[in-house]
Every structure is written in structure tokens, then in C-alpha cells.
Amino acid sequence: MCELTKLHLTEGNLPAALDMLNKHLELESTNSSLWQRKSQILLELGRQKASLDALKQAIQISPNNAALHAKAAIISRDTRDLAAALEHIQRATQVDPEDNQIRFLSAQIHLACLHAEQALEILSGASEEPTTLQWLTLKAEVLVSMESHRNLLPLAEISAAILEKDSSDTAGLALQSITDAV
Length: 182
What we know:
The chain is mainly alpha-helical. The chain has 11 helices and no strands. It has helices at residues 3-10, 14-27, 32-44, 48-61, 66-78, 82-95, 100-112, 116-124, 133-145, 152-165, 170-181. The longest helix is centred in the first third of the chain and has 14 residues, at 14-27.
């Protein structure tokens, strides 16, 4: 990326940076990094569809880049195009099946699509299941959405793990209330 584009970015002049980047892309249209940067600028400008189009250009150049597919999945999810989000996250998972961030995003998207069983399978399939608050909370959301009494023990265990990390965490307290009530 040229120095003038970087200067515009550091000054926060996104339209000027985008203009310079477009000129740079005219000379170097097969540079995946430039398309990624364009996508990011467009996203910051609130132009999600154009951002996704630029990201698709980067994906055409680098089809085996899991991070690009994951970013496309996020934008698609945020624009409520869940079919496209599923398609992109499935491709990201094919490229990098061991990446827990991709796994987490995949579970979120499957849950948004009301595929709770698949979301739980994705979360449970991690070689080393993370114990972060976000991971535990998402797993609890999946279990609650499944509305099954067989999930009470896992929910109680997740609640205890969340509260062990942060005794004031509202998700952990809510889960504890749910399991106590039943």
C-alpha cells in the first residue's frame, strides 16, 4: 500500500484513503492485501455490501485463506444474509478446521440459523475446548436454546465455570438462576 494511502488512514481521512487505494488497485488488481484493506475501509465507512464485494475479490485471489472467509461470514451475518454466512464459515472451517476462533464463529452462525444441535457439536468438537467466558456463554446459549432437561447438568457446570472466573458475571448468574429454578 502506498505511503499516501497510509497517511490518509492515519489522519482518519477514509474517503481519500479509499480513493488512493482504488488507484493502487488499478495497477495491482491481484493483490489480495489491497482488496482486504479496501474492504476494511468500506466497512468503516458503513458500506457493508461494497465491503463484502471487495472481500470477495480478495477471496478469488486467495481462496484458501480461512481468515478472509471468516470475515466474509461476519459481514454476511451482520447484514442478515445467513445463507451466505453459512457458506463462508463452512469454507473457513474446511481450510482451517482447528482454529477455535473460526469454530466459535461457526457455532454463532449456526445458532443464528436455529441449528442449535450443530452449534453444540461444533463447540464440543474442539480438540482443546477453550474455557473463556465468551466460549462458555455461547455454549450455554446453545444449550438453553435447545430447551431440553438433559442439558441442565452441563448448564450447571458451565454456570459454575463462568462464576469461578467472574463471580459477578451476569450470564453466569442468570444460568445459575435457571438451573436452580428447575
